[in-house]
Amino acid sequence: MVGKELLGHRILTQGDGDLMLAAFYEKKGTARDVIKFGEFDEPSVGSSEVKVKLFASGVNPSDIKRRTGFGALSEMEFPVVIPHNDGAGVIEEVGAGVDKSRLGQRVWVYEAQIGRPFGTAAQRVVVPDHRAIWLPDNTTFDQGACLGVPAMTAHRLVFSDGPVNGKNVLVSGGGGSVASYAIQFAKWSGATVFTTVSSGAKAERAKKSGADFIIDYKKEHVVKTILDLTHGVGVDRIIEVAFGQNLDTNLAIIGTNGIIATYASDQLLEPTIPFYRLILKSVTVRFVFVYAMSLQAHVEAARDINECLATGVLNHEIALRFTLSQVIEAHEAVESGTCVGKVIVDTTRV
């Protein structure tokens, strides 16, 4: 791969093929220190793959963690990385073994950069055929770019231990993207949904998502409120974004044989497990990491997501939009922690 400076941008090229614009980095670090913007050769399509002309790219906290070297992600997986896993666009080329009827199909893309160097912060991306899901006509490309990581995570959190119809479900941090989809999936499946929030804006988002009971944990006593609302029974399932930090609270409100499904514990990376308090209620703790989900779990999530999209069940909150040359600003917006909703990069605008 040959590199040179041109008009202030790094140009990366391997040959004389068509070029595309992309954001990229060659080392871990802060967005402003490592993210660059330039031209790449368009990716070639292999067997069982599709090339997608992208219209939108979604930025997730996990994209930030990959770029900063959080936890086990401290080493570069590839010499050059185009970030972002979520996106949406139109299939413009298919590889061997892929039905040609997919040409021209609107799709949403998930896990574009998992096991691969080039993600969706570009004008085009190549992904395995099964990672490009038909996008219903009633869903915009920006909305399609919201789905992959948060919606698939939420689906697994809600349904990994069976249906939630008729159950009491608490979704922690109801203003977040994963939590918002979790609320919507739980309501779609017939649950009574409780959620906790920390601001009026997050409460409003939780309300739009359909939560039955919204508790501001900065103003209300979460344990007392939930036990009062459930007549002392507590909840059957908890969807948890801050496992270690909220463990004491959750043990006070989880019912016997309840399930805590968690996908993050950023404030307390290595929480102490209160073994006997968990076992006396026979509590199951389910750890959900979207990138480790089985293919079958992804297929089931995509099926239900699309059913909800096609029938107008899901709503999507977009916080901010940036152009392709503003990926640094997009990452900084996500890192600020102030965005209520998804940060989208318009890959058609520079």
Helical/strand content category: alpha/beta
Number of domains: 2
CATH topology (level 3) name of the largest domain: Quinone Oxidoreductase, Chain A, domain 1
CATH H-tier superfamily of the largest domain:
Medium-chain alcohol dehydrogenases, catalytic domain
Q: Approximately how much beta-strand content do the residues carry? A: 25-35%
CATH architecture term of the largest domain: Alpha-Beta Complex
Mean pLDDT: 94
Please report the number of helical segments. Answer: 11
Text of the CATH class of the largest domain? Alpha Beta
Q: What's the helix-strand series?
A: EEEHEEHEEEEHHEHEHEHEHEHEHEHE
Describe the structure.
The protein has 350 residues and is an alpha/beta fold. The chain folds into two domains: 2-147 and 318-346, Medium-chain alcohol dehydrogenases, catalytic domain (Quinone Oxidoreductase, Chain A, domain 1), CATH 3.90.180.10; 150-291, Medium-chain alcohol dehydrogenases, catalytic domain (Quinone Oxidoreductase, Chain A, domain 1, Alpha-Beta Complex), CATH 3.90.180. It is built from eleven helices and 17 strands. The chain has helices spanning 31-34, 61-68, 141-144, 148-159, 177-188, 200-209, 222-229, 243-253, 275-279, 295-310, 327-336; strands at 2-6, 9-13, 19-24, 36-41, 49-59, 86-94, 106-109, 124-128, 132-134, 168-171, 192-197, 213-216, 235-240, 254-262, 284-287, 318-323, 342-346. Strands 5, 6, 7, 8, 9, 16 and 17 form a seven-stranded mixed β-sheet that branches. Strands 12-11-10-13-14-15 form a six-stranded parallel β-sheet, with helices on both faces. The longest helix has 16 residues, at 295-310. It is globular.
